Amino acid sequence: MALSKFNLFHYQLNAVSCFLNRQLPKSARCLSTVLVPGEASGPSVKTTVPGPKSRQMIADLDKIQFAGSVFYFTDYKNSLGNYVVDADGNSILDVFSQISSLPLGYNHPDMHKVVQDPDNQIAFINRPALGIFPAQGWPEKLTNSLLSVAPKGHTQVNTMACGSCSNENAFKAAFMWYRNKQRGGASISDEENSSCLVNRAPGSTPFTIMSFKGSFHGQTLGCLTTTHSRSIFKLDFPALDWPIASFPRYKYPLEDHVKENEAEDRRCLAEVEEQFEIYNKAGKFVAGVVVEPIQAEGGDVHASPEFFQQLQRIIKKNGAALILDEVQTGGGATGKYWCHEHFNLPDPADFVTFSKKMLTGGFYSLPEFRPQQGLKIFNTWMGDPSKVLLLEKVVQVVKRDNLLKLVELSGKKLMDGLKDLSNRFPQHMKNNVRGIGTFCAFDLTSPQKRDEAFFRLQQHGVQSGPCGEQTIRLRPFLVFQPKHADIFLDVLEKVLKEIQTP
Amino acid sequence: MALSKFNLFHYQLNAVSCFLNRQLPKSARCLSTVLVPGEASGPSVKTTVPGPKSRQMIADLDKIQFAGSVFYFTDYKNSLGNYVVDADGNSILDVFSQISSLPLGYNHPDMHKVVQDPDNQIAFINRPALGIFPAQGWPEKLTNSLLSVAPKGHTQVNTMACGSCSNENAFKAAFMWYRNKQRGGASISDEENSSCLVNRAPGSTPFTIMSFKGSFHGQTLGCLTTTHSRSIFKLDFPALDWPIASFPRYKYPLEDHVKENEAEDRRCLAEVEEQFEIYNKAGKFVAGVVVEPIQAEGGDVHASPEFFQQLQRIIKKNGAALILDEVQTGGGATGKYWCHEHFNLPDPADFVTFSKKMLTGGFYSLPEFRPQQGLKIFNTWMGDPSKVLLLEKVVQVVKRDNLLKLVELSGKKLMDGLKDLSNRFPQHMKNNVRGIGTFCAFDLTSPQKRDEAFFRLQQHGVQSGPCGEQTIRLRPFLVFQPKHADIFLDVLEKVLKEIQTP
């Protein structure tokens, strides 16, 4: 279905907005600037989504691997900025950004420059075993990219290939640190060295990592033990016996439920204390607590800064490490590089893990968590320098184009619009619109309605992301502007008017 | 130290060899052809390795992360073919190939072409969430690369980012398959769905993966449970209670110990049977057995084709899956794409996992191991299409330049030379030289001598790889020619004459 009237309207709106924006202060220029030249002015949908070409390709792929999770095939060559073009030529406003992983949208001109540079091409084709043979200049590259945006108090960083490996290795670093504290300077015994080879104590430790109900930390077996968002991820797989506590589930609107939500914080924190006591007493010592600043896959579940402040105090009191999993929240979508910077924690987090929008996986850790020996936080590739070259440029563009400010402005527009719609369509939308920056989400009033809304958004040329039971999450690119928010909100309004599910 | 006399000798040797090779049949042209134009004619070492510049960079990196495992910093721009150039300008014959991970050597001209192609650059900068939004043409790319060299009987492949994730996901696929067999078509209960969310039965399974003493399968917690090569990898980390059997340890020379080694096979296979019985009886059902065709990190430990044939029969009899970990052995270094193709197995392996030289991680699996639902063998990126573009070209070059034949010829040269040296230097080298293709190794007579030999090889401009207790492994590139084998063997002879360790 063509959206030509719709497009025309937005073209006009853009023209007016460009004129008005000349009056804006410098900090808000990102509102008006064309951030990705040549970008479409609105979605344009010609077929159902997925269309016949995508459906054929899904059938082709399914001969090679299970292809049941594919939405559609994509024409990356013709995708640009905030718009993804699918194999059937539909141009779709993408507010899901490859599961929140592509920072600057499609074919950003500065990303092209990185890969066109012959010096950089060396890194794209000579992938090193980074832990043994890094390229000269590698410390500077880390300094210019990951360390230039490090969370407060962090000077140490390790790179990894993906989010799961980042969390797994942060867990391992926490275990080593905890064991070294237990040893108190004693040297490693022969028995430790031999017993660990066959998975036995004392060399193999009974240590645990505490996690929260509803969380998602990845899909390798260690990470999966700490993941509790949806049974599909976990069913049929073995898991370790590690402690689990409740994560706050607030009543909305927040301002009307201050007391209840404070009580909810206390309830969950008491569970954390209790789990520490149970597991430590049983000798299954809790070396770390892993937590998302916002539970993303679990349905964009937010907790208060006070919850995280208290959580850090409890963890410290129990001699464990705080592992903040910023794989999805990190990289700028909350208007800061790290979501937990909104929490005003008393101390820096012990670990901050990342991947997705940072393009490389890895983790920051405080100096006391440095390994004492080589090869322990290790694997063949230890990440990929070509991703760090891309990240270095992303960091420059974010600064140059003032994109964190843009996230804040576009986020406000999104939040205001979503709240307005939730007031106007209470039969479909719950009144728990929530978000920081453009990291926003809203619930439909039933899982079936969520599925319908998600599908209808796609048919109208908007790619959103489902999560939790009945949530739609927005994960736009860092080049998502208020004009894109307007388009999204208009389409959502249309969808809310169309919903048939009772 | 300059090796100019040495270089001159090899230059002359090359000239003679080029002349002679005009008479060679087409299949052996790879012997004489200049595979990487402009490649150095021999190593050239000016400083100690690592030199002062590398040492300064190691100190710089150590401010950011533990840098104790770094050998030296590398000048990838000036590295070419089989020669790596370090930050101090030393040109080093690299027979370790970034822990066996770079297939065609440094800056191969065909690899440059891949990244210079503007169409390919799209894939380098628009990394998709492959499980949801693959690029149009993706099934064809998989067909032209991974499936074109698939092990016999394999038509199904999944991509992953690294070797550990490949093994973890193969384990998961085996668990799902095993559980579905148990269910016998019954549907999934509510109790299964709710219990798995908190890591409890029946949704979380008590299933196990059997592994072998001495093995290495990666360093995430699931993989680490199956890794038993060295305590450094495992100490201080928790592990699951999974079965472990012995892997054959043969007496060399093989031809003089046929009976003992057959008995060793039987001993180990009996342990496999026994572990199946113990764990299955205890309800800790063994869903799969993971094994390397050659235990690489563990010291290049070989087992006979008969061992693997019997192992497959036992696994099948016990209703489990055979997971062949070809992360290090795969990709051509044995003269075939998959080492297990040398074993003449009665049936295709259920899973073959890969990474390293394949540039992308992933696994092949037989159709019966396909997941029944989406999102279970899943993560954000599911690998990286830009690596598959590079692999597609590697596969073409391997075929065009007849590199598997070259591996066979260079491997024979290496093996003959190593055996000769082990006969001439029995005070330093054990008589257990072993290898398939260029995937070769030899033991020194003590760990200390291994360390000295490794160090002296480096000082003379040869980068080898240590593994096991007292082993040096060779993992040259696929463009390693007999002339490079000559250079390596001459340097090794010099080193064996120099060794001081008693």
TrEMBL record, chains A, B:
Protein name in the entry: (S)-3-amino-2-methylpropionate transaminase
Keyword terms, alphabetized: Aminotransferase, Pyridoxal phosphate, Transferase
Superkingdom of source: Eukaryota
InterPro entries hit by this protein: 4NH2But_aminotransferase_euk (IPR004631), Aminotrans_3 (IPR005814), Aminotrans_3_PPA_site (IPR049704), PyrdxlP-dep_Trfase (IPR015424), PyrdxlP-dep_Trfase_major (IPR015421), PyrdxlP-dep_Trfase_small (IPR015422)
Cofactor(s), names only, from the UniProt record: pyridoxal 5'-phosphate
Pfam family, any one: Aminotran_3
Natural source organism: Daphnia magna
Keyword presence, Hydrolase: no
The protein's Enzyme Commission number: 2.6.1.19, 2.6.1.22
Family: Belongs to the class-III pyridoxal-phosphate-dependent aminotransferase family.
SUPFAM superfamilies in the cross-refs: PLP-dependent transferases
